[in-house]
Amino acid sequence: MSSGVDVTLDNVWIKFGDFVAVREANVNIKGGDFFSFLGPSGCGKTTILRAVSGFLNPSEGRVLIGGKDMAGIGPNKRPTALIFQNLALFPLMKVWENITFSMEVKGASAVERRKRADELLDMIALQGQGDKLPSELSGGQKQRVAIARALCAEPDVLLLDEPLSALDLKLRQHMRTELREIQQRVGITFIYITHDQGEALTMSDSVAVMRNGIIDQIGDGHAVYDTPATPFVASFVGENNVFRGKISAINGNEAVIATNRSGELLSRITPAAVGKLKVGDDAMMFVRPEVLNVGEGTDKTTISAKVLNEEFEGNSYSVFLEGNGGKRIKMAMPNMGQNQHSTKGEVVSFSYDVNNAVVMPAGELASE
Amino acid sequence: MRKPKMFSEFFKNNGLLMGGILMFLVSFWIIVLILLPQLSMLDFSFRYNLPPALQGTEADSYTLDNYRYLVFGPEGASDAFNKVDLMVFVRTILAAMAVTVLNLILCYPLAYFLGQSKGGGFIRLLVIMLVIPYWINEILRAFALRIIFGDGGVLNGVMMSLGLIDQPYDFINADIALYAGLGYAYILLMLFPMYNVIESLDRNQIEAARDMGASWVRIHRRIVIPHAKPGIASGMTMVFMLSAGALAAPQVLGGTSSLWFTQLVYQWFNDTLNWQQGAAYAIVLLVASIAIVLGFMKIFKVNMGDIGK
Amino acid sequence: MRSNILFGRVALAVYLVIFFGYLLGPLLVMGLTAFNSAPFPSITPWQCYTYEWFGALFQDERILNGIKHSFIVGIGTVILSVSIGLAASLVLTQVWPRWRSTYYTIIIAPILIPGVVLGISTLVFWRRVSEVFGENAAFLNNGLFLTIIGQSTFIASYCMLVFVARLQRFDTGLTEAALDLGATHTQAFRKIMLPFMRPAIASAAVLAFLASFENYNTTTFTFGAYPTLTIELSQMVRYGINPSISALAVIIVALTVFAALAAEVYRRRSKIKSGDIKPGKGLPAWMFGNVATILLVALSFVVIAMVYSAQAYSPAQCKIDYKAERQIENQTRIEALQKARREARQNAAPLESITSEPPSQGAGAFGSVFAPTNLEDAAGTGSEESGTPEAPASPFGSVFAPNNLEDAVGAGKN
After folding, report:
1. What is the ipTM of this complex?
2. Model pTM greater than 0.90?
3. Cβ atoms within 10 Å of A118's Cβ, excluding its own
């Protein structure tokens, strides 16, 4: 197997007529990394993938694979293999012919192809299924055939366009682990497209979060989840309570935000916004449901609210609260064996650790 | 300048070789098979019918004579207009319209029945029975009707032996045979477009309308026919154009006294050997029938894209 | 309410019978005429059951030549129009949206252009092209070439429609996947697109061949020195006919029915195999699968039996009997006539001899003139008869030489 190579997007713009699908994308993907583009549908992530695989030309900028500019090189000449959203298995070819199609077009003999197909079928645990047609396989099996077909081409970069979206939940979770294992075994660069943050966070070394053709943040899962760069990232990746207001004081990496309905709250400034906030700016503070704890903290990290409702979710409870002025707040509590956390209508105080809250300039939220 | 970009994209998507082959075939068809011959015929229709020696000389100039002839007849003729040919023209157009409407009335119930039935073996059998006559030569189909409608044909034989008539009725000269034959020849082109669109109509819509108390007439008028409009338009266009341009059926089934316009064209070409005159007549037929179809499409708000579905 | 439904059912049944009667009746009648020994295609009067018209058909040099030309033209047209139609449909999926409707209008137009116009324009255009190229491009004026070109102009549109329908279900991702895996565009076309289009190519080819085979309007202007079967048929139909045309029709119908049934049986077989239909589930579907098979087998048996019996069967005796019968009838008729004339003579001034003027002038031969009542009129008016019998141009006019008269008289009597 070839080792992974770097993929670089250098100031890439992609336009369709007047519509800008991708705006000024600058991405460095390290060889051998599992890299994800995460964003809602229509954000331009598939467009980027098509530009890397060669089905599209960037309107501006360069795509480099292994340091080589790909301009003018067609998809069939690039060291990439793409796994399509609908898999695009050739319906009229048997499984083994599907898998070894890349060898067939290079003129490999049937014996050679058959041998290689058997190896790959072993790898994806589909021994002896080579003579079936794709329509005779289950969803997960098709998935694995598509992966084997792409790997058979011995690409330096494997591109995956939401390949798990058609599978049911159980299978999807299983395939996540399997994909990650395969990636580590073959050691090539994976570029993965998804709108599912769970997939992105569990599998990736690095994640790029996209919105309306713009890359908002690139970083590993922790960075994206714990220190979102923009309100969009904060609200799109995982759940978050958002408090709007104006900055009333700044002290180093921390700031006090005078929220509209919940009083003054203290938070750390998200790394990407350090130095960009001044007193009086419109700002947003984000606190995740799972970092809220019942009980008072300091006067600037404590909120009180009335319990509206409680939902049991198996491994946790979600408590829905209503603060001053009807402000909705969600709190998540781990299930430790107790029957319930709260009683309806009760007014509780809860607090958070300053390091678990982030404040940043106000901006667009992910619509849900 | 978007055109060059479109072509470069085309070749990028198809590769040079495949793109080149596709381009060549399509442009050969459109330019050499469709456009140039029509233009060439148009040009021809404005020329004099000259002996070979004079072709290309000064005498070979453009003229409206061929069209004038259709309207006013030969110079020095007693009538002010070419009544015979004009009558043939008008009759052809009107009769083609009549055939179209008759076919529509005849086919609509069957298209509805087939389209809304749940399929199954009986329906498949009906469809096969529908297709079989269409695979038989047009001449033979006309000939089959001639056997039936002929003077000593089956219909007359049966009617006379039943005592309904005591003399054979002349179906041929009464043009009954011709209309039956034209309708017969193109009936499937009316049926299948309608069948296809009605098949795509959700049966629940009809049931919902019925549930709300709509009568059958109203259901057809408000739901089925609006939905089937593209198919109806497609079928009517095809049947009208083909009937107006039919040659086989009029030649085999037409009476001696009444000609079809295409027969005039045929005579100019094959009997009189005046190709220029024939081309002019053909142009008139083409333009008139296209104008009529476009006019109807405008009135009934149908798009060209619906034709051929 | 119930009577309403019943009425609807009956109306539907009557309507279906009328519709299919209109559609299939003429073919049935034409088929029967092929087995009647009468020298013109008819079933009334029925003379003798015979196979002679099939023999006559296969000895007809012009028909055989026409079939040959039709096949050459058909194959050429299939190749040309299938490839053009395929290319045009592929381009249609890629043309820019704003150009699409213009493009579609152009490529659908040949279907709507009258066939005679296509034939004429092809003829005129290629005549000019060949004038430009002169002697060394004589093939441009060749009837086969012109016919193939002229027919393909519109048959390609039919093929295009077949392909467009199939392409709507094509996943362009498959071609992209092939390219992504390193295939060239040509390889992607050959290995992905062509196999996917294969069923559509087959049906387009069949459609194109049938359309070519039966085409008359265009071919009649372009055939030159190579008349196709349809052209020969039209000549025969227009300038005198005998039932060998019906015999040809029987063969074509039989082949068509055979092919349709075989296709249906095959379709059901593969559907059952692929599990789309479960055999035995749903009575009509189940029945039909068998009905098609049974019909197919029955049809084969009938054909075999007919071919076999044709070896042994001869209608000669029947014909002789029939002729004798007619002669006797004729004799009595003439005697009756003479008797009537004698009486007339006694009553009025003698007229010209009617026997010297047999009412046989072709047109209207076995028509109204010979009905007994008319005959008396004719006898009465003598030579002034010309008006009544001549008026309708009989379809079978020229066939009727005077020696067919006996038959004609028989027809009149029925």
Report:
1. 0.83
2. no
3. 16
